[in-house]
């Protein structure tokens, strides 16, 4: 039986980054088990494929909408080849998977292709994809098995013509209309991709606004821009009651503020969230302690050091619920490895940036004015509209704003919300300011190069 210091089940951004950290920083002997592809949801069915499609779709939309204004003649953007777009996306994924495989090799992490089942403390069986089984022994085990799309118990949601993000990312046939159930981050990103490609998009959201986890002003602005710029119809406070097939396509029946409504589309995408994935992780052969590991609503429960109820077994990433983001899974994995080695977490788990890759991009970190008010925190809130920023004007991206929230007394930065071009790249400046305890005045000492979008940060700090 092969012996390891750490056995990790699941090679998503939580698992594979933890493997690198354990091997490199703590010189641990690591096994990494994966039953699909290296990179997990993030690389294969999440972050990277969506952003690759978004990039292509945004270029197409930009040229089609503004080609003439920019003086780019002969670029009426009359067509695109969805199959080729998908081929290019797949090439990006291939390249990045190759990069992870190389990193595993460089760091001497042993990768097992197969399904890992926890049999007992320190014992994992791998059902190898190519046949056969192997049993591994490990001082520590880390469960990083991620999540899968949730499907609602809506009559008709399980028929052909209704897809999840997994199938949507592979879509390569012509589409005239798309209805998206769920106006969260994933739903809005798909709305952005397909509306940019000329598809008529409708969003049906149960809550009173889209991207409800973000600052209210951002949700309202996004809804308005989606309608005005891309012609996307957004129905909020709307509950889907049934999905059925008709001669014209898929019919989504919902009640909007108690009024019965129906919208027909070629395809319906369900994006109402994701559930923790633990299938195959435990078996009848697993010990009683493993089978009775503490869980709640399908997710594995952990303490602040990511320890499960079974000593020596840790769980991180989407499988423990919480904020289901790739960089959160990575931070949790690295923190769990540190905990195994009696070290402090290498990152500040309280400062987590969130990004949405719509056009304009959206990013936030720390608290919003709304949250501060709810918590009774006295704040100063400063906002700069990007309409006055040179780089935004020259690149036709002048919509949006940068908002910074600071403590009213100390001026310490508490949060920032951005809705503008490159917001997802620029938000890290505010994350760094929060983690380092900087004030408005500290940040304002920085010289921002001209012409850049980041000059907007300098303006917001004044
Ligand atoms: P996963 O990435 O889900 O990896 C778990 C891996 O474990 C999988 O490969 C799975 O096959 C494997 N596995 C499961 N069970 C076993 C077993 N028993 N044995 C062996 N292997 C097993 N997050 C962001 O931060 N930014 C984004 O822009 C973003 N965009 C997204 C877009 C979409 C469409 C989706 C669906 C998600 C997106 N996310 C994004 C979320 C992000 O992908 C997840 O939060 C992240 O992948 C979670 O990482 P993880 O390591 O916990 O699990």
TrEMBL record:
Active site (record annotation): 450
Residues annotated for FAD binding in this entry: 51, 116, 145-147, 318
Disulfide partners: 42-47
Cofactor: FAD
GO CC terms, sorted: cytoplasm
Chief location of this protein within or outside the cell: cytoplasm
Catalytic activity of the protein: N(6)-[(R)-dihydrolipoyl]-L-lysyl-[protein] + NAD(+) = N(6)-[(R)-lipoyl]-L-lysyl-[protein] + NADH + H(+)
Class of enzymatic activity (EC top level): oxidoreductase
Domain annotation Pyridine nucleotide-disulphide oxidoreductase dimerisation: ranges: 352-460
UniProt cofactor note: Binds 1 FAD per subunit.
Superkingdom of the organism of origin: Bacteria
Domain FAD/NAD(P)-binding: 4-333
Places the protein is found: Cytoplasm
Alphabetical keyword list: Cytoplasm, Disulfide bond, FAD, Flavoprotein, NAD, Nucleotide-binding, Oxidoreductase, Redox-active center
Ligand binding (NAD(+)): 182-189, 205, 273
One record GO biological process: 2-oxoglutarate metabolic process
Entry's EC annotation: 1.8.1.4
MF annotations from Gene Ontology: dihydrolipoyl dehydrogenase (NADH) activity; flavin adenine dinucleotide binding
Alphabetical list of Pfam families matching this protein: Pyr_redox_2, Pyr_redox_dim
Family annotation (PROSITE patterns): PYRIDINE_REDOX_1
Note: The active site is a redox-active disulfide bond.
Family: Belongs to the class-I pyridine nucleotide-disulfide oxidoreductase family.
Record NCBIfam families: lipoamide_DH (TIGR01350)
This protein's name: Dihydrolipoyl dehydrogenase
């Amino acid at each position: 039986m092969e012996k390891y210091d750490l056995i990790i089940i699941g090679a998503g951004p939580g698992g594979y980054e933890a493997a690198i950290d354990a091997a490199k920083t703590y010189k641990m002997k690591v096994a990494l088990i994966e039953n699909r592809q290296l990179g997990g949801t993030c690389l294969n069915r999440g972050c990277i494929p969506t952003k690759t499609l978004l990039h292509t779709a945004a270029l197409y939309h930009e040229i089609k909408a503004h080609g003439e204004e920019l003086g780019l003649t002969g670029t009426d953007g009359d067509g695109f080849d969805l199959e080729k777009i998908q081929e290019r996306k797949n090439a990006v994924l291939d390249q990045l998977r190759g990069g992870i495989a190389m990193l595993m090799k460089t760091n001497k992490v042993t990768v097992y292709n197969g399904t890992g089942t926890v049999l007992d403390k320190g014992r994992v069986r791998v059902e190898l994809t190519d046949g056969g089984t192997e049993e591994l022994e490990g001082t520590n085990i880390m469960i990083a098995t991620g999540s899968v799309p949730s499907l609602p118990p809506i009559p008709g949601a399980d028929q052909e013509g209704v897809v999840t993000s997994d199938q949507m990312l592979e879509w390569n046939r012509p589409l005239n209309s798309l209805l998206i159930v769920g106006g969260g981050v994933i739903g809005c990103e798909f709305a952005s991709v397909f509306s940019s490609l000329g598809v008529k998009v409708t969003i049906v959201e149960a809550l009173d606004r889209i991207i409800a986890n973000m600052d209210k002003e951002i949700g309202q602005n996004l809804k308005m821009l989606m309608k005005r710029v891309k012609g996307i119809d957004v129905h909020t406070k709307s509950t889907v009651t049934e999905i059925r097939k008709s001669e014209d396509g898929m019919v989504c029946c919902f009640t909007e503020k108690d009024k019965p409504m129906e919208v027909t589309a070629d395809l319906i995408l369900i994006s109402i969230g994701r559930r923790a994935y633990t299938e195959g992780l435990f078996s009848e052969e697993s010990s009683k302690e493993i089978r009775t590991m503490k869980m709640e609503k399908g997710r594995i429960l952990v303490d602040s050091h990511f320890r499960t109820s079974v000593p020596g077994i840790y769980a991180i990433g989407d499988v423990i619920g919480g904020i289901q983001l790739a960089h959160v899974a990575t931070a949790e994995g690295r923190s769990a490895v540190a905990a195994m080695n009696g070290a402090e977490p290498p990152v500040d788990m309280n400062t987590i940036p969130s990004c949405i890759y719509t056009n304009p991009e959206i990013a936030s970190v720390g608290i919003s004015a709304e949250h501060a008010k709810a918590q009774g925190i006295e704040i100063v809130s400063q906002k700069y509209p990007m309409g006055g920023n040179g780089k935004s004007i020259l690149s036709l991206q002048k919509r949006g704003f940068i908002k910074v929230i600071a403590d009213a007394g100390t001026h310490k930065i508490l949060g920032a919300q951005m809705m503008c071009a490159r917001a997802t790249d620029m938000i890290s400046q505010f994350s760094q300011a929060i983690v380092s305890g900087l004030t408005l005045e500290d940040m304002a000492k920085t010289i921002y190069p001209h012409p850049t979008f980041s000059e907007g940060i300098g303006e917001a700090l004044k």
